[in-house]
Structure formats: structure tokens, C-alpha cells
Amino acid sequence: MGHAAIGASELDNQIPEKARWLGYAGLLPQLIAVVLVVRGGEWGWIALACSFAYASLIFSFLGGVWWGQALSDPAAPLWAFIAAILPSLLALALFIPWTLGWDWPGPSLLWLGVFIGLSPLVDRKLGMGGPAWVRLRWQLSLGLGGLTMVLAILALQQR
């Protein structure tokens, strides 16, 4: 029976409940950061810095997943390994403006949010997971990427 014949709730049941809830719980740090930034003050700035660190860690983690996926496939193309190292390198590059005293974190958060939001495209190209997992990855990536972009906008408004 093809996936098209399976209802959405049946596909959701293929994902362990704890994986789904822990995935959604991974959005909490960015949600808390949004609240703290909106409230303003010293905690708002700390929240912006922490939200950049958190999003960078998650993005780098995704690269590690892609690296493992590429290593497990003896026929993996070179682009898969390149894609796997890019998240860590991009996150580091987006951190450099802070170290140089340039405009940060708004532009860096914005780019990081875009990259995270588009990251399931790499999963898709690598052929990772079934429909339920792909849908969860899109939800989590768009959630984290979107919240990170909201934080970017808030940071840019504070300038």
C-alpha cells in the first residue's frame, strides 16, 4: 500500500511519540528568546546571543546527521559530504561579525533562519526518512527557522 493511501494520522503514528514531542520541545529555546527580546532589557540582549548560539548548534547538528547519512552510503556523491560540512562553516562565518564588532546579531540570525528553514531540502536530496519524518522535519525546520527570523527582525528593529 502506497503512502498516498495512508491518512495523515497513520503517518504521524509511525513517528515515536517521544521523538515528536522532543522535536517540538526543541522550539522552546527560541520561543523563550522571543518573549525575552520583546520584554527588552539586559535579558533581551542575552536572549538574542543565546538564540544565535542555539540555532547554530542545531544547524551544525543537522550537518552531522547529513555526514552520517553520507558515510553510511558507499555510493554517496561528493556534494553530500560538502553539504554536511557547510552548516558548521556557515554558522561560524555568521558569528564573525560579532567578533569584529560589526552589525550583529540581526543579519546573522536572519541568514541562519533561512538556512535552517531550507535544510530539509538536503534531507530530501539525500533520500532521508519516510513521509512522516520528512513532514516532521519540515515542521521543525520551518518552526526554528521562522522563530530565528523573528528574532532577527526584532534585533534589527532595536538598532
From TrEMBL:
Coiled coil: none annotated. The chain crosses the membrane at residues 21-38, 44-66, 78-98, 134-156. It comes from Allopontixanthobacter sediminis. InterPro entries: DUF3429 (IPR021836). Keywords: Membrane, Transmembrane, Transmembrane helix. This is DUF3429 family protein. Pfam families: DUF3429 (PF11911).
